[in-house]
Design goal:
Blueprint: E1 4-8, H1 13-17, H2 20-29, E2 34-40, H3 44-47, E3 55-59, H4 61-69, H5 75-91, E4 96-99, H6 104-113, E5 117-123, E6 129-131, H7 134-141, H8 153-161, H9 176-186, E7 196-200, H10 212-223, E8 229-232, H11 239-251, E9 258-260, H12 267-275, E10 280-282, H13 286-293, E11 298-301, H14 308-311, E12 319-323, H15 347-357, E13 370-377, E14 383-389, H16 394-412, H17 428-456, H18 463-484, H19 491-502, H20 509-541
Parallel strand pairs: 1-2, 1-4, 2-3, 4-5, 7-8, 7-10, 8-9, 10-11, 11-12
Antiparallel strand pairs: 5-6, 12-13, 13-14
Helix pairs in contact: 2-8, 7-8, 9-12, 10-11, 10-15, 17-18, 17-20, 19-20
Amino acid sequence: MNKQVLLINITRMGDLVQMGTLLTRLRDEWPGVAVDLVVDRQFAPVASMLNGLRDIIAYDFHALIEESRICAKDTVALYREVASWADDLHERRYDRIINLTFNRSSALLAEYVGAPDIRGARSAWDGGTVVDNPWMTYFIDIHQIRRINRFNLVDVYAMGGSRAGSFAPLSVTAPVECTEWARRFLSSQDGPDNEWIAVQAGASDVMKAWRPQHFGMTLARFSKHWDGGILFIGSPSEQDTIAHVIRTYREAGGRSVIKNAAGQTTLAQLVALLADCRLLLTNDTGPMHLAVSVQIPVIDLSVGHVDFQETGPYGPGHWVLQPDLECAPCGFDQVCSHHACKERLPIDVVADVMRHVVGQGPVPLTVPGYRLYRSSIDADQLGSFELVSGHEDATVAWYAAFWRRRWYESFTGRPSRLPVLNSLAPDNGEGAACLRTMLPLLDGLCRRADHIVRLTGQTPLPVQAIQALQRTQAEERQTVAHACTTTWATRPLSTAALRLLHQDDVQGLERMARHHAAAYHRWRRETEVVASLLASARKASAPSSVAPVSYVGIE
């Protein structure tokens, strides 16, 4: 009998599209695998265009959450309703569940349906939420270490839900009737025959949207060299933004024909329209991933709290512009008082990148204020971004490369094909000093944790002695965690360790003590490994003391 896998992904449209590589990897891992998807009802049309699904199980999760919020039904009734709906899934006896929605509700659903192998969020014995798979736990950690993260979520999903493998592009397929509709829509009498670019000027969150007037000025400049048309896409709620863009465009002398398809298409029709365009200029949006999935180049304007390293266009052939600001990207919980990032992307440069993508000019020269990246596939067959122009913080860039290699090898158990760093970390002295400080402190935490384990096995239980040790342990842990924040050499270690300490899916005082002791020992081992790797990098960067060798020709 073929293997069966259940995917749970109920949050956003873009997250669904980003599962494309995971679906390919599952078929490679288990030929003939049957993959089902639990999805929110509003996103079922997107799911229907994904390749490799056996069954799409749609449920109105947003209504469920709203009913829970306003107490329209009591909690027991709500859970009974969901349990009744999920009974059929439980009876299918899945071999693996991959839960890509990291909240308590989805964790309860994953646990209720059940499988020998659950990846992503699942319920603990006490109703809390735990995550076991290393790639999935990394997903949780990303927002704490996003400055040095170099894994696209497409690859995190694929390697966490299946395994590493060859590059597999995202892919969606629109029905034939939608393809025919799109061609009719774009070939009407008031537009060019076959040359269009697409633009999404709006976004679901205003924080991650470039200013409408900047879109308008950019398109006006681009239109001086473009004989085709400009197609606006988006939701009905973005009409005011699009009107602002078009008004600025015309005032600035834009001359290309415009069509506005925002709010006038189904998702399948939107996919078909994008497939007929030369490029998409966009903020970080769900349609950006749809464009990637029909293999048209994307120019991603990465502003606000968006981090293109996490959610940027996947695979080769795309471009990203990011403001050159120390605070970019800002955190999701950060309230920005200036929005300066939206003024740092030069209009002329964006227009010149557009011209380059359609084959009408070179890559623009570097000017201050922004960073330009080109997407690619690296030696480990993962999505990556190459800095084409602009400046990156040297310390962040060094540790991003270091941790990219370290995490890949640690999580996959296979060697990375990326080159080993043979240069000193820019903060080498600070990093080395922090590691020297941490190791004896971690030794103390390990000894204290082991002592607590021994005490929890005694009868009668020495409660006061255990509580005293735990108080001391908490103070020491806080000291270590604070020391870790000073350098990227150690910050990821504390992020992972503190998360592991709090994910204690065990019952009983002694088992919990053993779980905590194991977490402290792992923190100690990982710190020692990192110290060794950084020492190797220092040795590799040191000038050689070996005398140069002279070579004599041999007749």
